[in-house]
Amino acid sequence: MEVSSPIPKKKARIEIIPLIDIMFFLLASFMMVSLSQTTMKGMKVALPVGASGKTQSKKDYVSLSVDKDGYYYFDKTKIALEEILPKLQAVYRTNPEAKIFIRGDQDAVHGNVTRMLDQIRSSGFTKISFEIKSQASAGIPGGGR
């Protein structure tokens, strides 16, 4: 005589809903980590703060910096003012669509930045941007006026 169990027999199931939640969490985590790992090509200078500052994509770009002591930098390499034009002309020959980012220390002399800008324009580049800190990244609440 065979006696059946009063407890119904269930087949084993694999629930994929929790697995999907974990995969979305991992995807979001990896995306946030990869976005925070941007490399800075320019020298570290104290950038001035501007109200209209926006973050831009920095692919195919050259960073030129002027520090408060009047030294010029091509990416992170110290360079004389006379050497900027030949380097930029070489970059222009390989990639005329490259963007130029100027990083001027807030205590830099205006004439030093102007001389560097003249060298950049002489090389043929037309996509030139000045880097500034946005008010949000500078920690200035609500406009800073």
Poorly predicted segments: none
The overall pLDDT, averaged over residues, is: 79
First-to-last CA distance: 91 Å
Main sheet characteristics: 5 strands, mixed
Roughly what fraction of the amino acids lie in strands?
15-25%
Instruction: Assign an overall shape.
Output: rod-shaped
Could you estimate the helical fraction of the residues in percent? 25-40%
CATH architecture of the domain at 49-143: 2-Layer Sandwich
Number of strands: 7
CATH class of the domain at 49-143: Alpha Beta
Please provide a written account of the structure:
- The chain has a domain at 49-143: 2-Layer Sandwich (Nucleotidyltransferase, domain 5).
- Helix content is 35%, strand content 17%.
- The chain has helices at residues 17-35, 81-94, 110-123, 135-138, and strands at residues 49-50, 61-66, 72-74, 77-79, 99-104, 128-130, 133-134.
- It has a 5-stranded mixed beta sheet.
- The protein starts with 16 loop residues before the first helix and ends in a 7-residue tail after the last helix.
- The model has no long low-confidence stretch (mean pLDDT 79).
Task: Please tag this protein with its features.
Nucleotidyltransferase, domain 5; alpha/beta; single chain; 145 residues; five-stranded mixed sheet; 7 strands; two-stranded parallel ribbon
Describe how the helices and strands are arranged.
Layout: H1 17-35, E1 49-50, E2 61-66, E3 72-74, E4 77-79, H2 81-94, E5 99-104, H3 110-123, E6 128-130, E7 133-134, H4 135-138
Parallel strand pairs: 1-7, 2-5, 5-6
Antiparallel strand pairs: 2-3, 3-4
Helix pairs in contact: 2-3
